Prior knowledge:
With about 350 residues, the protein is of the alpha+beta class. Helix content is about 30%, strand content about 25%. The protein starts with a helix and ends with a helix. The model has no long low-confidence stretch (mean pLDDT about 95).
Amino acid sequence: MREKLKNFLTDLVNIPSVTGNERDIANYTENFLKKLFPEENIIRYNNSIIAFDSIDPDKETISLVGHLDTVPGENEFTGKIIDNRLYGLGASDMKGGLAVMMALAEYFKDRDKRFNCIYVFYEREEGPYDENGLEPLLRNFSIIQKSDLALVLEPTNNNVQVGCLGTMHASVVFKGKRAHSARPWQGENAIHRSADFLKRLSELKWKEYTFDGLKFVEVMNATMVDYSGGRNIIPDRFVINVNYRFAPGKSIEEAKKDVLDLVKGEAEVQFTDLCPSGKVCLDNPVLQELINRSDLKVEAKQAWTDVARLSLYGIDAVNFGPGDPAQAHQKNEYIPLNNLYENFDILRDFLEG
């Protein structure tokens, strides 16, 4: 299986699949799955695929979930193994996880296992929230909702990462009156109008929240600005992009209120990319068995992943994948092969019992 894992991953990193261009990798994945599952147990929707066992009602059900796309990037060592690391764009984020999913599907083709398994390969995870390919699968097909636990094989170094922060962007729009910079009294400087807000934002303390002993840190930051005018013009419009990462358990509406309370009516606020937080599901008995069986380290997810989207549909989900999070979106990205082998071994042992 180690050779197969390397071969699957080599094939995957050699197929370019930047967000919006997943057709070729989806075709490769679908053709592979057709060798393992009956046609009626494979669903293709755009460039996303679901494959599943015949569901035995006496068994619990686990979904293995992974995105097919990558961010744009460069990798001069694609497909090469150097110092026991396999290189390629998306090797850690998250084609290593996809290779494990493929290897498990093949391994259990003619072997018994304790669980029903659903394999979910989807497009457009790295793009905007509203274009994410997992959403239409959840909305249009009820099969994933049968899961007692979903494992999203995002890079975690084979640690279990529970829950996730919600995230949103807010355009805070300050308005003034345009004038010549030599005669500022004829206008009103929109940049200057933001001073009090920026001071409050810069002094805002990080907030820590603890769930089942896991610490999540809530943060709000200015990340971009936009303005109208030029170097010798008093601007009549100044926009600050605020990115808010908020704790599990807080709703989108509560997070919006936090931003509005900080703005204090001094500017218009336009919200975009509203992504909910993910449930902390350490009380899930299937998850507890996985953790205890292999003595896995458990961490809080101090970021956003599709664990949150699965939570919205009532599905307990965690991140558990072979990739190295520090390699995600890096130039000359790689995955340690030992991580790949270990992830497969842990999941095979758990599913097989």
